[in-house]
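Private note to self, pasted from the team thread so I don't lose it. Backbone tokens:
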């Protein structure tokens, strides 16, 4: 946390300071992170937080423990904070001073806050006295996880992973972690990573979301609080949706940052020579482009996010049956309000830009973000949503029905799950329809395999075609029977823009779209809805089977497995590099830290099940629906934590015994000298 500076040098009569923070080490690619620029002050207040993670090096192979050089690696790292003056000169920014903090010192205690003198660069110029450069106040927190091998964590991990199946979910270990942590965020980060790693995130979030919806009284406040549910969904979107954000928003955000078009529409803030109408038009074009990019991106939305949105939509629609819009607002309150709008507002926090945008760009992004957020929220009286009259006037451009329709279609697509258990509740959602040409599938033994024009319809339940719009379907393929959707080589039928829908028993439907754009759209959306199918193929034939052989690989049997890997079309689930044991260790240390609260919660369960009167003040903060179940889980957690605590203590004792100070590996230094003396005295005490 870079807090503040005092007495920075003034360069050429000005001082517009900012700091860059790096964690540098012998084998670490150091990325510099920047604070905002503070204008016209040499005593700036930054108060910005930066996180750095030291993970095991990629060369690390799964040994049962870290090798000693990894620990040395950490000792060789240092935190570097450089202060710069943001100058308008063409030579670039001027260096003001730096501070280097070796991690070695931080490992002795976990949290430091102190003032430091800024030092000149080590360039042999020793004439500067250090106090000429001013000073910097920093707060550094260092946490170290000692991770055991997997089997140590089994008991605690099993209790956590069962969370989705516990009835009621408030009695589950994951929910209890959310109850005892000071900030819900603390609990959400390791929980989401653990559940993603073990493929349990969707059932877990469905369970806690469902419980939260049941507690919600007013459909307008659905998922608005900072509950465990919303924090977990935020975290999942950040991890699973990173690539999705990159492909949708990055190109246009980069352009906004580079081109610097004036977009200020507040008459009070207009600069000289700027024209309000031009600015409005610039902003309108940006909003329109971003809106289109987002609402057309449904097919790229990661499966795990779609499955979560599907269960939010179902829970909300079931709970508030009289409100037809709640199925949309439940989803838009995440995808627009907590994903796209914040990413547009602060692209640096979502890895879309390396640093904070400059003030003018930042203002443009704020205006775009506000408008997109309102468009996505589908509220009835739009213009009334803005405190500022200039925003309300600007928003009139977007008060057309087509914008609301586009949002609804987008929300329909990303919340229609490919999972099969819901035909009963849900009306099929129409995703795409239109005329295309198909080749007969050869269902009859004899009969011409000719080409016919048909009206195709795709819902989230089935893919059908009929003679013309509104007719009875001639053929219906359930979504779960779509095993792959791939392009078809032109050589097969000497026809362009063809693709194939592969079904069980090697049945293939060959279709020709009107043009290459249409073909791509159909392939993408069909791939999207069939992505979760259990039997999806991994290989296919890029050409047709004609005259007794496959044109692509010349194989003669019509049931020969494919000769080319399927494209899959989309990054279905981006593989995340998560270490499940490390996350379980994090959760253990949180439970350990909040042990007094776990014990309080146990008391609360006891008092609740025995005594049903008004609650004691200190117990009322916990959500306890079923005291008996909750007590059972708490007992398991406390036992699991105690066992791990013993293991850690044992490990430290063993390590202490093995470390010989004064040996070649551990020379005695000022810090280790006291340890050496203590060790010697312990040894002599034992020998006595």
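Design output:
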């Amino acid at each position: 946390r870079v807090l503040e500076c005092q007495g920075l040098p003034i360069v050429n009569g000005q001082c517009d300071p900012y700091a860059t923070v790096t964690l540098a080490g012998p084998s670490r690619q150091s990325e510099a992170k920047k604070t905002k620029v503070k204008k016209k002050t040499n005593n700036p207040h930054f108060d910005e937080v930066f996180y750095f993670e030291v993970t095991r090096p990629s060369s690390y192979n799964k040994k049962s423990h870290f090798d000693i050089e990894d620990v040395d690696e950490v000792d060789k790292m240092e935190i570097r904070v450089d202060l710069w003056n943001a100058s308008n000169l063409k030579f670039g920014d001027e260096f003001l001073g730096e501070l280097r903090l070796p991690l070695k010192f931080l490992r002795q205690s976990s949290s430091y806050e102190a003032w430091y003198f800024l030092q000149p660069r080590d360039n042999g110029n020793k004439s500067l006295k250090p106090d000429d450069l001013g000073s910097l106040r920093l707060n550094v927190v260092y946490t170290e996880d000692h991770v055991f091998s997997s089997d140590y964590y089994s008991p605690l991990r099993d209790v956590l992973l069962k969370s989705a199946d516990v009835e009621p979910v408030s009695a589950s270990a994951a929910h209890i972690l959310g109850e005892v942590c000071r900030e819900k965020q603390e609990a959400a980060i390791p929980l989401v990573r653990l559940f993603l790693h073990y493929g349990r995130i969707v059932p877990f979030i469905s369970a806690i979301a469902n419980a939260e919806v049941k507690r919600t009284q007013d459909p307008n406040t659905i998922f608005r609080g900072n509950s465990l549910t919303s924090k977990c969904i935020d975290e999942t979107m950040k991890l699973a949706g990173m690539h999705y954000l990159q492909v949708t928003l990055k190109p246009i955000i980069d352009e906004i940052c580079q081109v610097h078009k004036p977009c200020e529409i507040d008459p009070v803030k207009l600069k000289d020579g700027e024209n309000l109408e031009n600015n409005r038009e610039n902003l309108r074009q940006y909003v329109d482009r971003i809106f289109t990019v987002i609402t057309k991106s449904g097919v790229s939305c990661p499966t795990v996010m779609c499955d979560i949105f599907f269960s939010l939509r179902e829970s909300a629609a079931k709970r508030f049956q009289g409100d037809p819009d709640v199925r949309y607002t439940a989803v838009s309150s995440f995808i627009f309000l907590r994903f796209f709008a914040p990413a547009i507002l602060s692209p640096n926090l979502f890895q879309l830009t390396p640093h904070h945008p400059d003030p003018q760009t930042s203002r443009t992004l704020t205006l775009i973000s506000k408008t997109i957020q309102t468009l996505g929220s589908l509220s009835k009286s739009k213009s009334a949503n803005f405190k500022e009259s200039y925003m309300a006037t600007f928003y009139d451009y977007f008060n057309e029905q087509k914008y609301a329709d586009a949002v609804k279609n987008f929300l329909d697509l990303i919340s229609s799950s490919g999972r099969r258990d819901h035909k009963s509740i849900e009306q099929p959602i129409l995703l795409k329809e239109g005329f295309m040409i198909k080749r007969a599938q050869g269902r009859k033994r004899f009969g011409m395999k000719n080409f016919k024009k048909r009206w195709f319809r795709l819902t989230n339940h089935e893919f059908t075609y009929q003679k013309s719009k509104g007719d009875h379907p001639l053929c219906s393929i359930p979504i779960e029977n779509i095993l792959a959707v791939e392009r078809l080589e032109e050589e097969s039928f000497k026809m362009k823009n063809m693709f194939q829908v592969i079904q069980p028993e090697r049945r293939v439907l060959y279709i020709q779209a009107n043009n290459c754009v249409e073909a791509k759209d159909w392939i993408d959306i069909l791939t999207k809805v069939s992505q979760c199918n259990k039997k999806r193929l991994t290989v296919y034939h890029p050409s047709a089977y004609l005259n007794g052989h496959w044109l692509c690989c010349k194989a003669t049997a019509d049931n020969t497995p494919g000769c080319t890997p399927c494209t899959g079309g989309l990054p279905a689930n981006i593989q995340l590099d998560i270490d499940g044991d490390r996350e379980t260790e994090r959760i253990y240390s949180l439970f350990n830290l909040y042990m007094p609260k776990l014990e309080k919660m146990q008391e609360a369960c006891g008092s609740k099940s025995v005594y049903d009167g008004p609650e004691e003040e200190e117990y009322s903060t916990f959500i306890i629906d079923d005291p008996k179940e909750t007590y059972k889980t708490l007992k398991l957690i406390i036992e699991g934590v105690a066992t791990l605590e013993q293991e850690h203590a044992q490990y430290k004792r063993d390590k202490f015994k093995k470390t010989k100070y004064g040996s070649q590996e551990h020379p005695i230094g000022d810090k280790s000298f006291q340890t050496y003396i203590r060790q010697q005295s312990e040894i002599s005490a034992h020998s006595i």
